[in-house]
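Table S5 (text form). Sequence records supplied for joint modeling of the two-component complex.
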Amino acid sequence: MEPLNALVSVSNFMLVPALAYGSQLALGALGITLIFSILRFAHFAHGDTMAIGTAAVIGGTVFLQARGVSIDPLPTALLAVPFGILVLAAYLLATDRLVYRYYRRVKAKPMIFVMASLGVMFVTNGITRLFMGTGESRFEDGQRFIFTVREFREFTGLAEGLALRTSQALTIIVALIAMVVLFWFLNRTRAGKSMRAYSDNEDLALLSGINPERVVTITWVITAILLVLAGTLYGLDKGFRPFNYFQLLLPMFAAAILGGLGSPLGAIVGAYVVAFAEMGITFAWRRVLSYLAPEGMEPSTMMQLLPVDYKFAVTFAILVIVLLFRPTGIFKGKVI
Amino acid sequence: MSLTARDLGLFAGMFAVLAMVAMFQSPQLAVTILNMSLISAIMALGVNMQWGYAGLFNVGVMGFTAVGGLAVVLISQPPVPEAWAAGGLGILLGLMLGAATILAAVLVYKRMAPSKLRGLAIFAVLVVGWFVTSQVFAPAKQAVQAVNPASEGFLGGAGLPVILAWPVGAVFAAGVAWLVGKVSLGLRADYLAIATLGISEIVIAVLKHERWLARGVNNVTGIDRPVPRPVDLQPQPWVQSLADTLGWSLSQTASVVSGLGYAALFTLVLALLIWLAERALNSPWGRMMRAIRDNEVSARAMGKDVTRRHLMIFVLGSAVCGLAGAMMVSMDGQLTPGSYEPLRFTFLIWVMVIVGGSGNNWGSVLGAFVIWFLWVQVEPAGRWFMDLVTSGMSDTSDLRQHLLASAAYMRLLTMGVALLLMLRFAPRGLIPER
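The corresponding structure-token record, covering 770 residues in total, follows.
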């Protein structure tokens, strides 16, 4: 029985990565929930929008690296994030003017919006691949680890080690800051309050003199900030591949629905639940359990509930359970 | 079967373009485009049933076509006796135990009163069931996959004629659709979209990783074909004389003849489906479906069971997609789970339906022909365009090389733009609903 070793092992292989992954998902799911409550449709281009924003950041990073700019030990990509946000905000506002605004004006059904976002997804996907190709690009630089497995072992004298990667720590900190700022913005500022009012009751908001176009613009800009942060952090953590970003759509939606579409707090909670469920169910528990089990009772199999390839199945199962038993989500979204 | 002169003109134009491909590019290419267009037309017909008749948004077409493709392997491949001996029973038992676990959980949920205890009981049933199932299933799976892994390593199929796989593929897809529909229909419309997106990813994941089922990413190749292969046609005297008359090479003639055989089969299926779909759409049932689509609340007030009707049409439409998936696999003669991409198999079909005219069966067929043609031809056109744009740059310029290399992605862009333009300026499509 070595509970301390078990704790360190589970932290190293599951808790820390899941916390980072959950933070990345949370930023994306917040965007989905915001668009849903202001523009009132399921934004299918979300994953690809995230990809194009990240592509801009990578472009900026390469530009800076070529000029020898660096903020070692932090990754250079952080310097390029504002540039990425500018590009993505401009892109999102352009798609809104060219595509969505018309449907808002004619008061089209939500399904038409979804369809249009499908078209935008295609175009965005094409543009991203035009610039980046389909392969993987890694753009992490600076110091890779805050502390490595060996350093941790030497420091504590335990058999198991724990490593903390810069990108993981960065993800968790940046996501926390972004969430706090977002909540402050929504609850304390005039613009944030008008957004909430608009999402709550469109007609009343119009009557009280809120300009809907301004609310929509602010929503897209916030989405751009969240998506560039999420995409950059995910890319630093796991590398950038356009198709992986497209596939993040499912966990992000699952998180938003689980938390309750339209509820920002719900999106965050949902994202962590999805991340921990995905990692926990596809994690091989053998090593951890062998520290916990009494002498001679160590498990002989991998103790893995599902192979890693089925992590989408976990997300999907969560989604199905929510849809069956509580379609409004944990925090009672406004739908149904 | 109401086609106006304009619609007929559009179809005639499309076939004229295909004839031009045969004349100026190559007859094989024209036949390949024709066959894939016919299959896409059937998929688009299935999506049109769901979206056009009933307003259901299915983003999981890829999953349903893949399930249909799986049916071809399970029906037509010869069984692998060694694999069955090694672990066939274990796998069957494992699958049954898995099903029994879920059934038991459902029973507990239905029979017990809502309480904390019920939640615990369901959890216990699932956990125990999971461990028992994996104890039986995992070793059997290992054993099957170890049998001659280079060429087999799976259970094989039933060894039946390949044409039987088509209806079976439809039934498989219908089964999956029933499960998805049961869960997500009756809720907000967006939920069906997200649920179908999820199930299609899972179907592909299962196909890729369950090697005992259909060899996973190792692909099943050399599947029986319903039409003689070009290699078998070449020695035939009538093919040789045909080649002489046309002045084509023997291999070209044989592949065109073989392709046209498929085209005939596919046209037969498509014609039957269109006939059925048109009959259904113009019957009281079709009017009811459209009434539900146009105003759910009043249809419900008239006593229609909207959720049930939605489930029905969702299952039917998905079955048609499954049929098309089975046809595609039997044409290619191989099942390659790695090649199923959502952009190609789900969203492209959607573009076909929207461009063709949602709600109109003929529209979907025309949309499928037009979009598939563009999909095939835009890539070379994109390369030519990029070549033109970058012709001022030197050959060694990095930018020029990069742009030329990425011309392939032009078609995603083009399809997206086509969808957006149609949606904005001609939302009723090429052949509107009437």
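Note: Residues 83-155 of chain B form one domain.
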